Amino acid sequence: MQKRLALFAGELFMDYQSRLYEGIKEAVAEYGVKIDIFTNYGVYATNYLHTRGEINVITIPNLERYDGVIIAPDTLTVDGMYEELHEKIQQECFCPIVCIRAEKEEYYNVLVDDSVSMEQIVEHFIVKHGLKKIFYMSGTQGMTDAKIRLDAYKNVMKRHGLPVRKSMIYHGNYWTTKAKQCLEWFAEDKDQPEAIVCANDYMALSLYRELSERGVAIPEDIKLSGYDNIVEGQLLDKRLASAEVPVEELARKAVKMLTDILSKKKVPRTVSVSALPIMEGTCGCHSEYKQKINERAYEGLNYLKDSVHTQLALSGALENCETVEDVLNEAFLYSKTFGHKEMYVCLCEDREDEDVANLGDYTEKMRLVAIFSKADGYVKCDERFDRVEILPDRYKDKISLLSIFPLHFRGHCMGYLALTFEDMSRLKEGFILWSSALSNYLDKIKMYEKNKELLRYREESNMDSLTGLMNRRGLDLYIQKALDKIDEHGLHVVSVDMDGLKYINDNFGHAEGDVAIKELSKYLKSVQNDRVGAARTGGDEFLIIVLGNEDDTKKICKYIRGKITKFNTVRNKEYELSASIGYEKFDPMEGIVACINKADEKMYVEKSGKKNARK
Questions:
Q1: Phi then psi for 558, rounded to 5 degrees?
Q2: Taking every pair of C-alpha atoms in the chain, what is the biggest distance, in angstroms?
Q3: How far is CA 390 from CA 1, 69, 419, 436, in A?
């Protein structure tokens, strides 16, 4: 029986990921396995609900159904996505896991030997160009490849007796959003950089654009290099100096490692491939790599124009749709340029008989409603199946490589698209616009079809039935509104966790446990106003969002503690009411997910202290 593997890689249409796909495709044929790829579109806005929709693609599969899992952490750029995937793996996964290009102690790893190639890049600037003031933009802190590349830079600078000050190194995020902050950081140093070495091409390209807007000529004023040799870097007037990573080989090795493990072969925890520096163009060296790049730039420009025109035409066509089938018919007509062989449109079941608080989740049962086929055109379907199967058996059994993209809008999981490809290189950014329009109008049609019910559902879906506080869904909506209203006072997150609920349930019954939960919730409800919102996020877990400063937040915490103390003083209960509390100030540079996690950590510190005190 063929082994079934899962791959988690974000933004499959990007250059690195599309090459990863090609390597996976080769490995599927070579090793006779089946692979489901779970991917997303990336976040190009600060909308929290959109972020949740992007992350939720990881909830589609049940990993107990897979023989092995491959993850590519540095492609999971949505804030909090890797952390949630890691938690899911810990809960569901009983199979070997291979991590690509980011070393994780608990997994097997396929890495790029970045040390030698990064040293060669830095050495090139020193020896070939005689530079001494070389600054460095590092990758995401905590990632192994980022540390290896940074250490390589430091080693070469030290070997040549050149200074490396804290202000010469900026920690980025492997993406295009940190260029301004990076240059502001470098501006604090006593010297101006002669060259900037970046840990990947996306960060280097963002610096290239930012420097160019400031009138800085590259490489005449500042020399620049990246890492990964992506297509966008090759399209510059002077190509981006970089290093070529054998991405396809990374993918093949990851699949081979899993098949060897599953065959009971002895496998090392880590294997590596080497990268090759390409030093020309923005490093100051002459480049002759132009003719093919001009052709690719021309093709890319035409594709962009076509995508814009297609999106405008599609939006106009969808405005006239009145049913889901109308939407699917129009979407099919504008889907023929994505290089797919078949595209399976799978939608969540109608939620009329389900808890509407779960609109942000995928339903256990899915419906295959249409197939967009190159051979057969638009095929109307109505087949119900278990989500864990990804597709009905009669389709899934004949497919070896399947790519799954989420359909979501305003925090609602509408369903997903499952694609097989004839020419995956044709899947580009236009697919994001098309998919977004499809999700948008599917959501609109749902509203049109059951407008009154949906209004009622949305009111109910925001509230926890036991406590009257917001539930997780309501909290998501509240957070988005709160982030839009942040002023000079800032925003704080308070994490509240009830202590001893299990003890109450076990000794006095669950009904009494509910009484205790409602008593604590009453205190949280009483602090709510137009700048404070409270939610029950789990059985004994609560969050408070405070649009205010630290003093406002401390007052709320003190008030809740005081109410608990008073309850215990006058109570006629055989147990004490107790809660652990922690809070954290929101940092826009880190995001709301990180803020919630830090508040939780501080709450757990208090909870741990209570446990230790009772020993």
A1: -65, -40
A2: 85
A3: 18, 16, 11, 21
Cα distance from N-terminal residue to C-terminal residue, the chain? 53
Going by their DSSP bridges, the two strands 340-348 and 412-421 should be labelled as antiparallel
The whole-angstrom separation of Cα 566 and Cα 576 is: 11
Q: pLDDT, tens digit, for every residue of 534-565?
A: 999 999 999 999 999 999 999 999 999 999 99
Q: What is the CATH number of the domain that holds 532?
A: 3.30.70.270
Q: Tell me the pLDDT tens digit for each residue of 324-345.
A: 899 999 989 888 888 899 999 9
Strand partners, 582: 495
The answer to whether residue 523 is domain-embedded is yes
Greater confidence, 452 or 44? 44
Report the 10 Å Cβ neighbour count for 313: 13
- How far, in Å, are 481, 532, 554, 555, 602 from residue 546 at the CA level? 12, 5, 10, 11, 16
CA torsion sign for 69, 71, 76, 79 is: positive
353 pLDDT band (50/70/90 cuts)? Answer: very low
By the 10 Å C-beta count (0-12 exposed, 13-18 middle, 19+ buried), 531 is classed as middle
CATH number at residue 196: 3.40.50.2300
- Does the structure show a pLDDT above 90 at 319? no
